[in-house]
Amino acid sequence: MPKNFEISDKSEKVLEKFHIEEKKPEVKKESKQETPPQQTPLIEEPKKEEKKKEEKKLKDPLKKFNWKKIIFPATAILTLVGIGLFYYFGIYKVKPKPLNEVFSFDEMFIVSEENRNIFTRPLPLLSAPQEPRTEESPLNGMLFSKKEMDEMMGRRPVAVMINNHVDARPLSGLNSADIVIEANVESGITRLMGIFWSKAPAKVGPIRSLRQNYLEWASEYDPLLIHDGCAQTDDPRTNACGNVYTYGIKTITTIGAWRSNEGGRVAPHNEYSSVTNAWEYGEKMDWDKFPSSIVSWNFKRDADIEERGDKTHVKTVFHTRLTNGGAYDAEWIYDRSTNSYFRRVGGRPDIDIETNTQVTAKVVILQEVKVIPSGDDKGRLITTTIDQGDATILQDGKIIDATWKKSSRTARTMYFDSSNNPIQFNRGRIWIAMIPHSDGEFAIIEQ
Q1: Could you state, in order of their start, the residue ranges of all structural domains in the chain?
Q2: 275: Cβ contacts below 8 Å, ≥ 6 apart
Q3: CA–CA dist 310, 305 (Å, integer)
Q4: Listed residue (273, 14, 3, 280) closest to 161, CA to CA
Q5: How far is CA 28 from the centre of its chain?
Q6: Which of 37, 73, 80, 409 falls between 20 and 30 A from 60, CA-CA?
Q7: Neighbours of 31 (CB within 10 A)
Q8: CB-side exposure of 76: number of CA atoms within 13 Å?
Q9: Given its phi and psi angles, is residue 8 left (phi above 0), alpha (psi -120 to 50 degrees) or beta?
Q10: Are 194 and 205 spatial neighbours (Cβ–Cβ below 8 Å)?
């Protein structure tokens, strides 16, 4: 069986070959150090590179990401949220008291201001201290430094006849006046006379014509007088035009005045003048010294807030038979926090258009005067000015019964309490309303 033999012989060869190949791994194992491990890296290298790439993919976005883009908006949002929370819980919810109720200011060294927004003007430099305000104004008691008073003593008060017609409102300059006098003229219409000395508004008015009673009240201050026209009659009790020259009044009339059509104004409600212009003209005429004839009133500090009245609301009517629909009725409403009286006229807040503030006064005097018709064709009135009578004074939120007395045309009107002692006024703007005995009245609405 030769074939079988051959097969067997081949099998043995195969087996022998198999055994030889089986031994080869052992030889390799023995020579492991001699053969460089090249095959293993060829198999593992791609895996390591893949891992490194994956790690780079995870790290690169963090490196490339611009953190500045998110930090600023996040900070801004957190800041706005913080401000909103502070306003809501710290201001809106808590509602802190006004500053003037927390602190008690010494008004001996502070000049009153109507404009409460103190941040609208630049802060003063701290390089030089301000002079103390120790000099008292004889007009309304306001305090000034010696340097300021020396400058003020080189000029005269300026009296300005101011239109109060409905078509002339809002008026200019009232919140710069030291004193304002309000009285009835013809047809139940009131007119104002502002006395300016401590401030020099560039625009006052509108200007209107002069009446005799205002001329006699102005004589107390020996002022520079601004007016446009005057009442001219044969009766010396109403002849303002003739008495301006008889009395030797330093009249400026309309020198330096101008017309304005702002807000659709038309004559005769659109003429204005300037206190500054008046002083410049007065200097040329050698009328630039403060009159020594002016007698000062007595003044005091404002009452402490706990001593002030709570509420006062007074309405004044200057002509009960000619009411003009209440267009000239004035109201005074007391504000305890500022210790001031805010004015309304014709049912609306009375606004000084130059300062865009409501007209205020620290003291309101309601002075009762005798008024009779003159009987002329113009319906002019005769007001007794050199006289004495009753007065009611609004001050510190309280109502004071008083009397008044004017001994001569040039004498200053004096005011006395129920014990006949001179009234001590608060420092600041003083408003005097001349209420006719026969046709006028005032009513205390709330106290």
Answers
A1: 2-27+40-64, 152-446
A2: 158, 160, 173, 176, 196, 199, 200, 201, 202, 204
A3: 10
A4: 273
A5: 103
A6: 73
A7: 9
A8: 6
A9: alpha
A10: no
Q: Taking a C-beta distance cutoff of 8 angstroms, is the pair 195, 157 a contact?
A: yes
Query: 283, 286, 261: which is closest to 271 by C-alpha?
Result: 261
Q: Left if phi > 0, otherwise alpha if psi is -120 to 50, otherwise beta: which for 50?
A: alpha
According to CATH, the topology of domain 152-446 is YerB-like fold (3.50.90)
The 3-state secondary structure of 385-421 reads CCCEEEEEEEECCEEEEEEEECCCCCCCCEEECCCCC
Cis peptide before 129, with omega less than 30 degrees from 0?
A: no
The number of angstroms, rounded, from the C-alpha of 180 to the middle of its chain's C-alpha atoms is 21
Number of Cβ within a 10 Å radius of residue 67: 8
Peptide bond connecting 206 to the previous residue in cis, omega within 30 degrees of 0: yes
Distance between CA atoms of residues 346 and 318, nearest Å: 12
In the three-class reduction of DSSP (H, G, I as helix; E, B as strand; rest coil), residue 379 is classed as coil
What element of type H or E holds 13? Answer: helix 2-30
In 178-289, which residue ranges form alpha helices assigned H by DSSP?
Answer: 212-218, 240-246, 275-284
pTM, two decimal places: 0.72
Whole-angstrom distance, CA of residue 376 vs CA of residue 358: 37
Please choose, from the candidates 195, 198, 206, the residue with its C-alpha nearest in 3D space to the C-alpha of residue 171. Answer: 206
What is the mean pLDDT, run by run of 10 residues, along the chain of 447 residues? 45 45 45 46 50 54 57 76 71 56 45 45 60 94 96 97 95 97 92 96 95 96 96 92 95 94 88 95 94 96 95 92 89 96 97 96 97 87 95 96 97 96 98 93 82
CA atoms within 13 A on the CB side of 308: 23
Please tell me the chain's helix, strand, coil percentages from 3-state DSSP, rounded to the nearest 5: 30, 25, 40
| Structure tokens that stand for 309 in this block | 């009245």
Query: What's the CA gap between 353 and 373, in Å, rounded?
Result: 34
C-alpha–C-alpha distance, residues 291 and 343, integer Å: 31
Encoding tokens for residue 319? Answer: 């002509």
- What residue type is assigned to position 97 of the chain? K
Cα 337 versus chain centre, distance: 15
Q: Are 224 and 277 in contact (CB under 8 A)?
A: no
Contact 222, 292 (CB under 8 A): no
